[in-house]
Amino acid sequence: MAYALWSTVLVAVFVLFGCSSGPLRSEGTLCAADAECGAGLSCVGFGAFSDAGCTTMVKACSKQCTLDTDCVSLGPTYKCFLACDGTRSCGAT
After folding, report:
1. If we measure between CA atoms, which residue out of 38, 6, 43, 5 comes closest to residue 22?
2. What pTM value is reported for the model?
3. Looking at CB atoms within 10 Å, which of 4, 44, 63, 81 has the fewest?
């Protein structure tokens, strides 16, 4: 069941995080480094946790957060997620 859940999450991440054509990327777009992201955003990893540990599945421009309420400015579907490195960032649900 956990595998099916993470497979669904992975597909959703790739659908939600498209590529941007502008020089600085908006929230949710794929990235490789902070310099690619727009003002106030960082290039953060989104991970999948399992019994075997945590694997970073994709890196995207996002806002760092502590609580779900920190993500409200991005839209009603954004929540605060834990990354493999212990940091937290906003992502669409």
Report:
1. 38
2. 0.64
3. 4
Q: Burial of 2 by CB count in 10 Å (0-12 exposed, 13-18 middle, 19+ buried)?
A: exposed
- CA–CA distance, 52 with 28 (Å, rounded to integer): 27
Supply the pLDDT for residue 22. 54
Residue type, 25: R
Say which residue the tokens 């991440």 belong to.
Answer: 13
Q: How confident is the model at residue 70 (pLDDT cuts 50, 70, 90)?
A: very high
**Token pair for 3:** 């595998």
List, for residues 26-40, the tens digit of each pLDDT value.
878 899 999 999 988
